[in-house]
Amino acid sequence: MTTVTVVRYKRRKRIGDENSPMVFALKLKSGEAKIYSIESLAREIETIGSLSVEDVTHVMKSFVRAMKKVLVAGNKVKVDGLGIFYTTLTCPGVEMEKDCTVKNITRVNLRFKVDNSLRLANDSTATTRGGENNMMFELLSEKKAASGEDSGEDSGDDNKGEGNSGGGEAPDPAA
């Protein structure tokens, strides 16, 4: 299982409210996440299946075109094991019925509702450790960030209560 690096930052409890108290929160370390294209996903799929990169790319591009057509028609698309894609709209309320027209629609959004089988969990707080949808997180300490180290050792108590003390991978529960 790979580890996702997170960093601690300080912000207002209610963003934009100057009187709101300051709180600490966690976010993904910037620059860590990669963006996968259809072609890079196709290469991943080729390594685990019997389809060529070209075949997978063609199917995925056709899937996107078909999905757009279905969504534009106002329908939903359910992808088993992934979730449901659907559209919503934003329209401010008006007092008179005759003033409520399609011209009032200010935004059309594409939404996604995750399938229960895909829901991700924090491995350090999950009831089932090492589950297939569990993610492991490591808090990046200031010492590591300043030195550029990634040794997995953490001299401070920065990770107390974060479930993964000491950085690196969590200890094997079977050991």
From TrEMBL:
Keywords, sorted A to Z: DNA-binding
Domain HU: 30-124
KW Aminoacyl-tRNA synthetase (keyword) present: no
Molecular function GO terms recorded: DNA binding
Pfam families membership: HU-HIG (PF18291)
S-adenosyl-L-methionine is among the record's keywords: no
Domain of life where this protein originates: Bacteria
Region Disordered: start-end pairs: 140-175
InterPro entries in the cross-refs: HU-HIG, IHF-like_DNA-bd_dom_sf
Name of this protein: DNA-binding protein
Organism name: Bacteroides caecimuris
Lineage of origin: Bacteria, Pseudomonadati, Bacteroidota, Bacteroidia, Bacteroidales
